[in-house]
Amino acid sequence: MKNNVRIGIVGLGRVFEHYLKLFKSKKIKNYQIVSLCDLDLKKGNNAKKILKTKYYTNYKDPNFYKEIDLVIILTISGTHYKICKFFLNKKINVLCEKPLTMTPEKSLELYKLAKKKNVMCGVAFQNRFNPSIELVKKSIDKGIFGKIVNVSVSLLWCRYQKYYNDNWHGRWKKDGGVLNQQLIHHLDIMRWIFGPIVRVSCTTTKRLNKLEAEDTASAIVEFSNGSLGNIEATTAARPIDLQASLSITGEKGTAVVGGIAMNQIKIWKFIKQKKNEEAKVKRLNSQKVPNGYGLSHITYLNKVFKLILKKKVTPPVDAFQAYLTSIFVHSLYRSSETSKWVKLNSGLRSKKLGFKN
Ligand SMILES: NC(=O)c1ccc[n+]([C@@H]2O[C@H](COP(=O)([O-])OP(=O)(O)OC[C@H]3O[C@@H](n4cnc5c(N)ncnc54)[C@H](O)[C@@H]3O)[C@@H](O)[C@H]2O)c1
Q1: Which of 3, 42, 92, 108 is 20 to 30 A from 136 in CA distance terms?
Q2: Would the pLDDT of 2 be above 80?
Q3: Measured from the CB, is residue 46 less than 6 Å from ligand 1?
Q4: How far away, in angstroms, is 80 Cα from ligand 1 center?
Q5: Which domains does the chain have, with CATH numbers?
Q6: What mean pLDDT is predicted for residues 8-21?
């Protein structure tokens, strides 16, 4: 068995800077970065100097991908589909940042293509691997909350106008608003842990930022087990990222996962609970994180590299999961566009997200 996964990275912007810090931390094992790609020469030459690797401006250049086992795609959201498809067709494993694609149908297409070519198509929903979220998932699967009453997510983050003044953030074709850009992690977790979801009612608005899509959204969610969910999300919180939290109310107990990246257990109270159990759970399942990215890309990347070295092609989060989460996102947008409840199995999609310039 080879020791290292040979990686090519496409997109050397902000999230790449985050990856770079994590690579430097030495907590990620069994990889070798062999080639880099970005349209921006300054970013490319800078990264090439730091990593002492080859740099290309065009990902279609065979020299970029001829020696790699895995391509990591960190470009702007609206480009993911095209780039993923190119590498899957070349039978190269793919790990792509969220959102995998701008519409559910394109994620489904990538899922089927990866199956056909027998390669990996993974999506970076890294928050699923936060210790706090892993605990919630395990606890829900074991039924320790009893009957679920309500599940809420609240994302109150601060993005100033400068963030939207590039050529893609907040644009319908390339990004979307707070729902598809920032909140998508929380929507993925809400659906994955507590779903299936039957229907949603959502309203969006622009409060402080100028962008095509929304900076603020509120929604009600109805789950198939009869429980309800609430969503509040904004990038117009000032002057700091206040929280990204998940609250669960059940017949046997209540929990709140908070922090700026759902990284801390804030409340863990059950009717039947040992003395000091809450304190212990908080201590063992909370993390300090530097920013809203959290730290779970470390866990995620280590898992992906291990799988590739074992020649396994099912990633920790696959394109089918991205498809289901994208249906949830589109249903919220469609509800906001029509001022009506939208059923997730209706096939209704946003008329704007991924389409309108
Ligand atoms: N998982 C997370 O928590 C998380 C956090 C932030 C961003 N993201 C995602 O990461 C992606 C990138 O975000 P960012 O903030 O780094 O954006 P960014 O604008 O800072 O960087 C994107 C880079 O991609 C390059 N690029 C665009 N098209 C290209 C192409 N065809 N070929 C080569 N390079 C190309 C750009 O030149 C730019 O350097 C987005 O999809 C975003 O949603 C994920």
Answers
A1: 108
A2: no
A3: no
A4: 9
A5: 5-126+296-317 (3.40.50.720), 128-290+326-342 (3.30.360.10)
A6: 97
User: How many Å apart are CA 343 and CA 354, to the nearest integer?
Assistant: 20
Burial of residue 343 (CB within 10 Å: 0-12, 13-18, 19+) is middle
Cβ of 29: how many Cβ atoms within 10 Å?
13
Instruction: Report pLDDT digits (tens) over 141-158.
Output: 999 999 999 999 999 999
Mutate to test the pocket of ligand 1, among 75, 169, 353 (most ligand atoms within 8 A of CB): 75
Tokens representing residue 313 in the block: 């092609």
The per-residue pLDDT for 236 is 98
Q: Which pLDDT score is estimated for 176?
A: 98
d(CA 153, CA 183): 9
Mark out the alpha helices in the chain (DSSP H runs). 14-24, 41-51, 62-65, 80-89, 104-117, 131-142, 161-164, 184-194, 277-285, 297-309, 319-338
226's tokens = 């009869």
Amino acid at 254: T
pTM value surpassing 0.85: yes
Cα distances from 228 to residues 12, 221, 246, 315, in angstroms, run 40, 6, 13, 30
- Name the residue of 10, 12, 15 to mutate for ligand 1: max ligand atoms within 8 A of Cβ: 15
320 CA to centre of ligand 1 in angstroms: 22
Q: Are 281 and 191 in contact (CB under 8 A)?
A: no
Strand order in the sheet with 216-223: 264-270, 253-258, 243-250, 148-156, 228-234, 216-223, 197-205, 342-343
At 356 the pLDDT is 64
State both tokens at 156.
């109150």
Q: Angle formed by the axes of helices 80-89 and 104-117, to 10°?
A: 10
Residue 97 Cα, ligand 1 centroid: separation in angstroms? 8
Nearest atom, ligand 1, residue 11 CA: 24
Are β-strands 148-156 and 121-124 bridged in parallel, bridged antiparallel, or unpaired? unpaired
Answer whether 72 contacts ligand 1 (Cβ < 6 A): no
How does pLDDT run across 70-129, given as a tens digit for each residue? 999 999 999 999 999 999 999 999 999 999 999 999 999 999 999 999 999 999 999 999
